Amino acid sequence: MADDSSLQTTAITSYDGIFKGIHDPEIRADFLKVRKLLSFRRWNTAKSLLQDTLDKASSNPFDKKCLTLILNEFRIYEDRKIPSGTLAACAISWESVVERDVNRINERFCDFPQSVFFLDIGRSGFSSSQRFVGRKILSDFWIAGKIPELHCSLVTADMVLGLFCDERITENEVQINYYPLSNAEKLELFSDFMTGDSSNVEISYPFPLLRESTRKELCSPAEGWKVDDTYDVMLSYGEERIRQYTIKFLETIAMTTGRFYDPACSTGVFLSTLKKAFPESYTIGQDLSQQMADLSKQRVDEVYCGNAMHPQILTGTADACFIRFLNSEVVTSADAEVLLTALLPTVREKGFIITFGHTPVLLSSSNFRRLSNFSLLQSVGVATDRTGIFQYYILQRDI
Known about the structure:
This is Methyltransferase domain-containing protein. It comes from Mizuhopecten yessoensis (Japanese scallop). By secondary structure, the chain is an alpha/beta fold. It has three domains: 25-80, no CATH class; 94-204, no CATH class; 229-397, Rossmann fold (3-Layer(aba) Sandwich). It has helices at residues 4-12, 25-39, 43-56, 61-80, 94-97, 140-143, 183-195, 229-237, 240-252, 269-277, 290-296, 333-343, 365-369, and strands at 103-108, 116-121, 130-135, 160-169, 173-180, 201-204, 259-262, 282-287, 302-305, 318-323, 347-355, 374-382, 389-397. The strands form two sheets. The chain has a seven-stranded mixed β-sheet with strand order 9-8-7-10-11-13-12. It has a six-stranded antiparallel β-sheet with strand order 1-5-4-3-2-6, with no helix packed on it.
């Protein structure tokens, strides 16, 4: 459960295209009460207050749109959350699935297109592969008041809609047709790779979020972000499961004394977590924001301020480079591939490039398989608490 100060930050922060902030002080205070009720798991009371707050916001089009989007997320969550105690199907008859009526999801490019995903099981493009479509629902971290974003990196069985049929892209939205799956079938679909082999599984997010005013991709400001202590804490929550998985991976490959480089280290929490787990490791951070770099100096062995296009470490000296910023709302899709290319030389022979993030990674396995001298080892990670999966691309340098 979050304290009042973190919830206050959540209530007033502006997210162009995702969460536009609450401008009216009275409406903002009511929304803060909604967040607090949610953190105490008082769902119905919070939803009722949110509806009342939306009714009061009718005179402010910006607040009204923001609250309407959030109320819709409440309804999506209620509709798609798999009830506790639901049993997985013993098997899935795909012949029966494709005989069902086709359903459609419509998502405007200025709402949450970045939360629509494809789940590929089996290598993409091969006859044995299957593609499913899904759409994220409210994050458990957001409900608990831990993060400001409505959605996080975790993908669960609740979020799968069905077997992909086809897609259409219009001027304003993406339309995806699919054969729906039952809740029992969704759980069965996830059961195989949650407890077994996930090496042929990939989550991809092909639809970028666009600014409503310019129709251009949303990304961070040129000078980087500025944060306070409260927001620093909230930033770290979003990658909690990813950090746990990273420690497990590094233990698996026995890399406990490595040189770990993070070219967009933010406040340094990610690297400091690795340092605590592996005291003999050496951490190197870099960030575009001077404020972020200064905060990181309290947590990281070596820190630089600078653009990731120009890595501040010697070529071929990192055992692992953790790329946590080629993501939606951080950089554009066009810049993501350019930045990746600039960072590839930082790792040694047999070193690792590891790409993930709290928001969707803008690249997919196809981008990584085009790289010479690197092998793609995997595309997803499984949460250590087995609650779901998330994008986690591991590349290893061949020579």
